[in-house]
Design brief:
Strand 4 and strand 5 form a beta hairpin. This protein is an alpha+beta fold. Helix 4 runs antiparallel to helix 5 and helix 5 packs antiparallel against helix 6. It folds into two domains: 53 residues, no CATH class; 217 residues. The chain contains seven helices and seven strands, in the order E-E-E-H-E-E-H-H-E-E-H-H-H-H.
Length: 279
Amino acid sequence: MQRSEERAEGAGPFVTRVTWRLAEGGAAVWESRLARKRGALRVRAEGGAEQAPRSADRTVLRRLARLNAVAAVAFVLGGALFALGAGLAQFGSAGPTTIASVYFAGGLCFNTGGYVSLLQAINAPRRSAGSGDLAPPRWRWWSYEPVRIDWLSTFVLFLGTLVFGVNLLDSFLQGLTTQQVNRLIWTPDLVGCLLFLISGHLAVVEVCHGRPCLHARSLGWWIVAVNQLGSVLFLVSALAAFTRPETGSLVNVDIANWGTLLGALCFSIGGVVQLFEHP
């Protein structure tokens, strides 16, 4: 199907939506998240009426569906375990080692969800340079594509989960001074939260094509919005978890625990909704 490129949209160096005029009339629209999550192109007839989307081949669609399901379940479990750990810490119903173990198990789930999300971006159908059709990519376990906003967003997310892993491993250490706690546990926690926030911002840009937007009927928009709220709550929790050198106590224990608990629930909810955003 021959097309001529009509309009590209996005923010900065990132292209998030491209529209082509079709030779037979109407237009086809490639959107970054739609192609990555559902393996599809939007098609509009003359006059703007939406037609059935054009999809990639069945092999690619099955692959995207499997990756999406694994990532979604991983975030549901990771968020649930983080919420459990925060609840145990807030209500004092378990020891430090038990709480650290629950958090660590949740961190492994977040690691899995982050990497599988990156795999989905790496292996998403690409726009064909000749016709603009969705072309099935060769399967890869890794790539370096920082000019693609979906790749960059998921890479930063995965990097954030790895940094959280440092924080969670260091949480098992005993007998640390206040300075060591802030350097080995609090600093990686803060950096991980900032990376989550940056990843979420890139995801918002991808969904909104560089402009503020509210798409109440879009599953993708709700997933991005809920996850970004979770990232904000994680950051608030991290700031409240700083240990004051002069007293050896946290800035605010309640805010630290409730921020983690509510932020983790946001990621669990986002994971549940993500289960329905499939080809």
